[in-house]
Amino acid sequence: MSLKQRIQEEIKRVASNVDQLKKEDTIDRESLKGLQEEYKKAVFNDGDIDSLNEEIKTIKSRIEKRKIKLEAFTERNNPIIQDMVIVEVDQWLKEIAILEEQAEVISGNLQPIYQKLSDGLEELVCMKYRVDNLREAINYFNKLYLNDASKRQLNLNAVGYDGNPVLNKILPLLIEHKDVFKVR
């Protein structure tokens, strides 16, 4: 069961308590209003102010205690929910620490390979450009100066020398769109 589901179950469990406390609070607040009206009348009519004052204090005290209980039942203050979240977040933090350590090790292992790949790709790209330049020269001279017999001797077709095999060695080493990892 997920953390969210366990929290929802706890909220449901305390819901009847919260409803009962809210009902009691409504009754006490209505009683308090009535007592305050009686108190005002007693002040002008020389009534029993002391007993009314005691009742008012008692009701206000119950309302305040109930307010504290209601606060304790909220999601942010419910101790059971707090304990559930603390345990879960603590586990997540430990897992993050382990994953960060593993990432450090893997990154350290890949760094020399990456450097070697990067250096090799740089060298292959230089070769590719040199091959491109040489092929361009071959095609230029093939088109302008070589006759059919010379083309056959060099194994060149009528249009010249196409393609670049070095490029075909580079492409598999590059990250293709399907292989890109989304990190953000």
Low-confidence sequence ranges: none
* End-to-end C-alpha gap: 29 Å
Mean pLDDT: 84
| H and E order | HHHHH
Q: What would your notes on this structure say?
A:
With 184 residues, the chain is an all-alpha fold. It has two domains: 3-77; 112-178. The protein is 79% helix and 0% strand. The protein is built from five helices and no strands. The model has no long low-confidence stretch (mean pLDDT 84).
Protein topology:
Blueprint: H1 3-45, H2 49-72, H3 79-144, H4 148-154, H5 165-170
Helix pairs in contact: 1-2, 1-3
Labels describing this entry:
single chain, 0% strand, rod-shaped
Quick rundown:
By secondary structure, the protein is mainly alpha-helical. The chain has helices at residues 3-45, 49-72, 79-144, 148-154, 165-170. The chain contains five helices and no strands.
